[in-house]
Design goal:
Number of helices: 8
GO molecular function: methyltransferase activity
Radius of gyration: 20 Å
Strand content: 15-25%
Protein name: Putative methyltransferase tdiE
InterPro entries: SAM-dependent_MTases_sf
Shape: globular
Order of helices and strands: HEHEEEHEEHHEHHHE
Pfam families: Methyltransf_23
Largest sheet: 8 strands, mixed
Family: Belongs to the methyltransferase superfamily. LaeA methyltransferase family.
Structural class: alpha/beta
Oligomer: single chain
Helix content: 25-40%
Length: 274
């Protein structure tokens, strides 16, 4: 699925790479919530784009965008742009912000939220009229267009076990399949779902997708032990030794360039009526 067309200037085009929805096109983004900010890189990149827009255009055309990043882990940098604030908080608790947002963005939150309808309802409540919510997540279901991902593929077996284990813990890893319906149930309009293909390793010939595949394997393949240990040992009852033998096979298939696998990336967004 291709990117949405973006007719803006340099700053707007660059901003389009950070999110997909039309947030900021019809009115300035005064407050943005980065839900599950992690290292804070997205929030700081968005802040940098605001400063770039300020340099390229008149200041009164770009009122200051205040960006709030929230995460359970205090792993964000100490020195940040002046319009970025980070808080350690649990997104599953009752939200108590004293203000509302023009845009709420969440990426790779699957597995960290138990009650997605509640999270989406709270997002709706804390958006300004006309504000946008965008969610971006991977679906652990390795696919191929040429049949090279077979039922015997260890990488796909790993994904299947991850889904099973997450279901036991009631932290679903297939949450992205339901975002569209959940946004509609919460009252959002102008809902759109896009599914992108992320190569599992650098198998594509196209340089852009080859690089994307390289980073996908770096992040997923090299992080398998950390991603899998608790789920496999506690939810499925595997021993650590049994898991490591299994993961060796999964890594082998993940980096095998003859397996033309891709992970579905769901991007779903909607607008609060205004």
């Amino acid at each position: 699925v291709g990117d949405d067309e973006n007719d803006g200037g340099d700053a707007d085009s660059a901003m389009g790479e950070l999110f997909t929805c039309p947030a900021g096109r019809d009115k300035p983004l005064r407050r943005v919530l980065d839900a599950g900010t992690g290292t804070g890189i997205w929030a700081m990149d968005l802040a940098d784009l605001w400063w770039l827009a300020l340099v390229l255009t008149a200041a009164d055309e770009h009122p200051e965008t205040l960006i709030t990043g929230v995460d359970l882990s205090p792993i964000q940098p100490v020195f940040v742009p002046p319009n970025v604030t980070f808080y350690v908080d649990d997104l599953e608790d009752e939200w108590t912000y004293s203000y509302k947002f023009d845009f709420i963005y969440g990426r790779m939150l699957t597995g960290s939220i138990a009650d997605w309808p509640r999270f989406i309802r709270q997002s709706f409540e804390f958006l300004e009229p006309g504000g946008w919510l965008e969610l971006s997540d991977i679906l652990l279901d390795l696919k191929s267009d040429d049949g090279t991902v077979t039922p015997a593929c260890a990488a796909q077996k790993w994904a299947t076990h991850m889904l099973e284990a997450a279901a036991v813990w009631k932290r679903p890893l297939d949450s992205c399949k339901f975002y569209r319906e959940q946004l509609a149930a919460a009252g959002f309009k102008n809902i759109k779902q896009e599914i992108y293909k992320w190569p599992s390793n650098p198998w594509p010939k196209d340089p852009k997708y080859k690089e994307l595949g390289m980073w996908t394997y770096e992040n997923l393949g090299n992080g398998l032990s950390g991603l899998s240990l608790a789920l496999f040992t506690r939810a499925l009852g595997w021993s650590p030794a049994q898991l490591e033998v299994f993961l060796a096979g999964a890594r082998k298939d993940m980096r095998d360039k003859s397996i033309h696998g891709w992970w579905p990336i769901y991007v779903v967004y909607g607008q609060k009526p205004g």
